[in-house]
Amino acid sequence: MTWCFWSVVVLTAFLTVTWEYFVAGFTADTSNITWLILAFFIYGFLSSLRVALHLEVEFRSLKQMDDAECVGDPGKSDAVALFISVEERIRRGDRIDVRNLITAYGAKLKGRVDNIGVISGMLITIGLLGTVIGLIITVTGLDHVLQSDGTDFAEMKTGLNEAVSGMGTAFYTTFFGALLGGVVLKVLSAEMRKSAQVLVADALRFSELYIAPQFAQNASESLNELENRVVVLNDQLTALGSSFGAVVETIDSKQTVLAEGLSDLIGNVEDAMNQSSKDAEVRLNTKAADLAGKLNEAAAMLAGLVSSIGAENKSEEG
Q1: Least confident of 62-66, 121-125, 139-143, 270-274
Q2: Are 53 and 33 in contact (CB under 8 A)?
Q3: pTM for this model (two decimals)
Q4: Rg of the chain, C-alpha, whole Å
Q5: Do residues 119 and 38 make contact, with C-beta atoms less than 8 angstroms apart?
Q6: Which of these, 73, 79, 141, 296, could form a disulfide with 159 (CB 3.0-4.6 Å)?
Q7: Which of 212-249 are b and which e, b meaning 16 or more Cβ less than 10 Å from the residue's Cβ?
């Protein structure tokens, strides 16, 4: 509505007052720069209309979200897509700065609006370029007049016509560039820039009212979940401590039983060794006694044998 209002007001006002100059300008300009200016103006005018339609969609989407107090359906506008991605990040537990995202969103809008300002500046520059070209044509025509020496009236007339045409080109291109670029597109660009700033302000307000509380709620839920996890971990550590104490007590009792068993085993081994030593000593004494008896018998037998041998020797000698 703002774009329509200013377009109608500016174009109606200036075209009503300067229409005859427009017609005369297109007729008088032999360089066709006015047509170039008109072509760029139509492009800039349609670009401003496209920006206005885009801003209208964004405004409607924000208003619908503001009325519903929640993010709208995806795909309707850039603002809706932005806030949907923000809510998705919130659900995933990511920490993001919504203000930076809205600032980037505003920079994108500013880029669209600044394109109109660039075209406006181009029109003014093209108008000045037409002025220079018109002055060049004028100087060329005056040069032809001066070279005629006042005798060749046909050449003087041609030179004067060329000079007048050059002056018309200079003035009319400046007029077209200044009016269409410096006034019409400048007004539309300023209004679109102001609308974009209002849109960014509305997006920030919506963020503070309906997105920031979700961050706070998500942080509170995360804190509660963390506290629950700490409580569960504390219970697990307590249970683990109790289990560890029971294991230590079991190990101590098993160690005592093991020590007692080792003491009994050592005593049994010592008794067995002592008993084995005694049995070995008894068996050794028995074997020694048997061996001594056998040695005595052998000695007696050897003595009898020696005696019998000696008696035989004596009987042989006798």
Answers
A1: 270-274
A2: no
A3: 0.60
A4: 60
A5: no
A6: 141
A7: eeebeebeeeeeeeeeeeeeeeeeeeeeeeeeeeeeee
